[in-house]
Amino acid sequence: MTRLRHRMKGTRMKILLGISGASGAIYGVRAAREILSSGAELHLLVTKTAWEIMAAELPGAPPPASLPARKRWIAALLSAPPGACRLYAEDDFRIPFASGSNSPDAVVIAPCSMGMLGRIAHGVSSSVLERCADVALKERRPLLLVPRETPLSSIHLENMLALSRAGAEIFPACPGFYHHPGSVEEMVDFVVSRVLTRVGIDTALRPRWGEAAGREEKGSKRGERSRQARISRRDS
Predict the structure, then answer these.
(1) Residue 63, pLDDT score
(2) Are residues 200 and 220 both part of a single domain?
(3) Which of 19, 81, 84, 154 has the largest CB neighbor count within 10 A?
(4) Is residue 19 within 8 Å of residue 46, measured between CB atoms?
(5) Is the domain of 82 the same as that of 185?
(6) Which of 36, 38, 30 is nearest to 54 (CA)?
């Protein structure tokens, strides 16, 4: 397993977050907020298709067209001051992390489309984000991919296996339910928490296994009340 290298005291972790063109833009947005909250440096790449999906899936005004306006839009979306994260143009191969001489501490792609996953698996760097992922692999930096696709074909599975063997980690967007999520946001947080924990960010977005007794008891009581209500309606 690829792990983060030790950082010198007083330095900030640099994380490149990619949002690619798969449904589930909320995973990337939620991860971005938590990375910023942790104090790490957030560097952001959003693909052309991902901008379109964000416009379709996220509430509020759609993303604007120009890069300067998109930087302001992203800052507002993340409830962060302007300049808190660095948003790069998706076609700018001059960004720092496109070279192994200046690789980030970790690359996270959430969500990761099957097309992007396949190109990364085969070393095809047709976009800046794919190049940065390629750099992460060759420089032995953590590369974490969050695919959100179902069902998975044999090609998808073989690509994931190739990436796992190359050092990447695959995090399918599959939330757990033992913490009794009460909203879509809590299910998203489950996945985001698992991903960011792997790069050394403890988000505290969800209780750990064995530490959720109070939450589980509350969820059990809520489930029991729901069951009693159904019985009452049936008998009335």
Answers:
(1) 96
(2) no
(3) 19
(4) yes
(5) yes
(6) 30
Is residue 231 located within the same domain as residue 171? no
Q: Are residues 197 and 217 in the same domain?
A: no
Query: pLDDT tier at 205 (50, 70, 90 boundaries)?
Result: confident
Q: What is the 3-state secondary structure (H, E, C) of the chain?
A: CCCCCCCCCCCCCEEEEEECCCCCHHHHHHHHHHHHHHCCEEEEEECHHHHHHHHHHCCCCCCCCCHHHHHHHHHHHCCCCCCCEEEECCCCCCCHHHCHHHCCCEEEEEEECHHHHHHHHCCCCCCHHHHHHHHHHHCCCCEEEEECCCCCCHHHHHHHHHHHHHCCEECCCCCCCCCCCCCHHHHHHHHHHHHHHCCCCCCCCCCCCCCCHHHHHHHHHHHHHHHHHHHHHHHC
99: CATH: 3.40.50.1950
As a whole number of angstroms, the distance between CA 54 and CA 87 comes to 15
* Closest of 125, 169, 133, 146 to residue 29, by C-alpha: 146
What residues make up the domain containing 225? 212-236
Residues in the chain: 236
Report yes or no on 191 lying in a domain. yes
Q: Which of 110-119, 141-150, 201-210, 212-221 has the lowest mean pLDDT?
A: 212-221
